[in-house]
Amino acid sequence: MSSKKIPAFTPYFTEEEANQVRAAFLAAGHLEGDASVSDFIVRATMREVRRLQRKHNGGRKWDPAPAGSLRRGQRTRDEIQHREESD
Question: What pTM value is reported for the model?
Answer without folding.
Answer: 0.74
